TrEMBL record:
ABC transmembrane type-1 domain ranges (all copies): 32-318
Membrane topology: Multi-pass membrane protein
Record's subcellular location: Cell membrane
Location (main, coarse): membrane
TM spans (from-to): 27-51, 67-87, 169-186, 262-282
SMART domains per the UniProt record, alphabetical: AAA
GO MF: ABC-type oligopeptide transporter activity; ATP binding; ATP hydrolysis activity
Keyword Membrane applies: yes
Protein name as catalogued: ABC transporter permease
Species this protein is from: Magnetospirillum moscoviense
Domain ABC transporter positions: 352-586
CDD domains referenced in this protein's UniProt entry, alphabetically: ABC_6TM_MsbA_like
Top-level taxonomic group: Bacteria
Keyword terms, alphabetized: ATP-binding, Membrane, Nucleotide-binding, Transmembrane, Transmembrane helix, Transport
Length: 597
């Protein structure tokens, strides 16, 4: 099967632009308001530094009392303005950041639901879960950091540096000679960061997958005594994660001390040079001290936003790597989707026909190798054959979980690839071996068959599926919550719920994969009754594991290695003495001698 290739531009600029365009455009108003708050905050910061000049010169040096109160009021106003602006900015940015996450989660999940079954075969659950959780959070930090960085830190630096040049341009030039030296190591760190974190997120995905498997499969793990094996697997992965996270932390920690060191050098230079000047020129220019204080305050205040700007790149790369992974899913086109000219499927008799159907899952080995098969409306066709023969594949092709590789499948003469998927699936009920129950009430689980069904309809379906009585005997009847995966129900009970669900759906075509797991005679009989009700009047394709089903089928197709090798009814096939006769001898004879059917 050809897998859709995604071409995604992974460059920082392209990703940033896409994040801004798709993530933030709806919140442009809030973003602008946040940027306005940042400007106010940055301006206030520069104001502090500027105020040092009059404070030193007018009050401490010249001792002018009339300046005291106006300056005090200006100082408190500046602080108040900055406090308000900081609050506004923080609130607005959280809002935008969180919205970006939620929107991305909505988009991711809708895309997941739209993607075809093959996609989930290729991509592990844990990996997909990690996209929805870890990655979107990392993305949020990228978005808010980029905004704060670009808005607040950059404008603070701009104002403060402007002030420094205004106060003393020689000293400023000298100081800023040092900073460009920092750019090179910092940008290197950014690149390393992105590599390390990309790897980390991958491993996190793997961890979720392992956990999922080990927890869901806990019975198997215990039954086979594989606890140690699972522990080792998870242990190794946790250690790898530890190593990677630690490496990321080391990279992250490096950018701060580099800046710290450079800051130290800059401040030393300033104090030595500026101090010399103040000492030498104290008498000639008494305002020198104020300007110098203002300068050094600006330099110290600029230090923090500069440092933040320096680590901005590393943080950003972390988030961008996550964004790239999210976009990858969002950009994956479902391989199976409605044609633009799709019409609704119209079912009259419910004839199903497979014409020369070939199918391969992986493009290499064929699972179906030219299958022709006819199911007349309302009749029951049983598929039997050794495992791996292709029986389940036929059931998968009908609701278009996969599309045929070659040939076609017709329902009442309409190619199923030409009709709307919703209309096709609405006409098909599927009862598979692995019964999926959701952690919800029995009622909700049956209602999954037809959304919006009334309580009466649900009960009628349960009665027809021979499930009503056992449901009433549960502590809360129809409101009993079945627990994750229905673990507190017996196998037969789960099957009957699945049958009730299909009953409620009341679709003309029924795909049935009978459970192979042995039920006790009583459950078996009840399931049998339920199935008979369900199959009545519907076109049924059943993968038969029970002799009774086989014997009662209108026609039996025996499959082997992707082909139909024998067809006919039970007696005819037995008389033929071929594969069916051998399978019968192996599989059903014992059941038959037990006298069940
Ligand atoms: P049956 O239901 O008769 O046991 P299946 O239809 O499940 O057989 O399988 C038919 C063939 O397709 C087998 O060779 C099986 O290995 C292969 N197959 C089934 N499912 C997949 C899958 N998801 N990916 C790749 N190969 C698959």
């Amino acid at each position: 099967m050809s897998k859709q290739k995604i071409s995604l531009d992974h460059s920082t600029v392209a990703l940033m632009r896409r994040l801004l365009k798709e993530g933030m455009r709806p919140y442009l108003g809030m973003v602008i308001a946040a940027i306005a708050c940042m400007a106010v905050s940055a301006g206030s910061t520069a104001m502090y530094a500027w105020l040092m000049d009059p404070i030193i010169n007018k009050i401490f040096v010249a001792r002018k009392a009339e300046y005291l109160w106006p300056l005090a009021i200006t100082i408190i106003t500046t602080f108040a303005a900055k406090a308000l602006a900081d609050y506004g900015e923080a609130v607005l940015l959280s809002r935008v950041g969180l919205r970006v996450i939620s929107d991305m989660q909505h988009r991711l999940f809708s895309r997941l639901m739209a993607l075809d079954v093959a996609f989930f075969g290729i991509n592990q659950t844990g990996k997909l879960m990690s996209r929805m959780t870890n990655d979107v959070v990392a993305m949020r930090f990228a978005v808010s950091n980029a905004l704060t960085g670009a808005g607040k830190d950059a404008s603070s630096v701009l104002f403060l540096v402007g002030l420094m040049f205004y106060q003393d341009w020689v000293l400023s030039s000298l100081t800023f000679f040092v900073f460009p030296l920092a750019i090179l190591p910092i940008s290197r760190l950014g690149k390393r960061m992105r590599k390390v974190t990309a790897n980390t997120q991958e491993q996190y995905g793997l961890l979720s997958t392992y956990l999922n498997q080990a927890i869901q499969g806990i019975r198997v793990v215990k039954a086979y005594g594989m606890e140690e094996y699972e522990k080792r697997k998870v242990h190794d992965l946790v250690e790898t994660l530890h190593e990677l996270t630690y490496r990321a932390a080391r990279v992250r920690s490096a950018s701060s001390p580099i800046m710290e060191m450079l800051g130290g050098i800059a401040i030393t230079v300033v104090i030595v040079y500026g101090g010399t000047q103040v000492i030498a020129l104290a008498d000639a220019d008494p305002n020198r001290a104020g300007a110098f204080f203002s300068f050094i305050t600006a330099l110290m205040l600029a230090y923090k936003p500069l440092k933040a700007l320096a680590s901005l790149n590393t943080n950003l790369q972390e988030g961008l790597a996550a964004a790239a992974r999210c976009f990858e899913i969002i950009d994956t086109e479902p391989a199976i989707k409605d044609r633009p000219d799709a019409t609704d499927l119209v079912v009259r008799e419910g004839n199903v026909r497979l014409e020369g159907v070939f199918f391969t899952y992986d493009g290499a080995k064929s699972a179906l190798d030219g299958v022709d098969l006819e199911v007349p409306g309302g009749k029951t066709v049983a598929l039997v054959g050794p495992s791996g023969a292709g029986k389940t594949t036929i059931l998968n092709l009908l609701p278009r979980f996969h599309d045929v590789t070659d040939g076609r499948i017709l329902v009442d003469g309409q190619d199923i690839r030409m009709v709307g998927m919703d209309s096709l699936r609405a006409k098909i009920a599927l009862v598979s071996q692995d019964i999926v129950l959701f952690d919800d009430s029995i009622r909700a689980n049956i209602a999954y068959g037809r959304f919006g069904a009334t309580d009466e309809e649900i009960e009628a379906a349960a009665k027809a599926a021979a499930a009503h009585d056992f449901i009433l005997s549960l502590p809360d009847g129809y409101d009993t919550v079945v627990g994750e995966r229905g673990l507190n129900l017996s196998g037969g009970q789960r099957q009957r719920l699945a049958i009730a669900r299909a009953m409620l759906k009341n679709a003309p075509i029924l795909l049935l994969d009978e459970a192979t797991s042995a039920l006790d005679t009583e459950s078996e009989r009840q399931v049998q009754v339920a199935l008979e009700h369900l199959m009545k009047g519907r076109t049924t394709i059943v993968i038969a594991h029970r002799l009774s089903t086989v014997v009662n089928a209108d026609i039996i197709h025996v499959m082997d290695r992707g082909r139909v090798v024998e067809s006919g009814d039970h007696n005819a096939l037995l008389a033929q003495g071929g594969l069916y006769a051998r399978l019968y001898a192996l599989q059903f004879a014992e059941e038959n001698s037990g006298g069940t059917p």
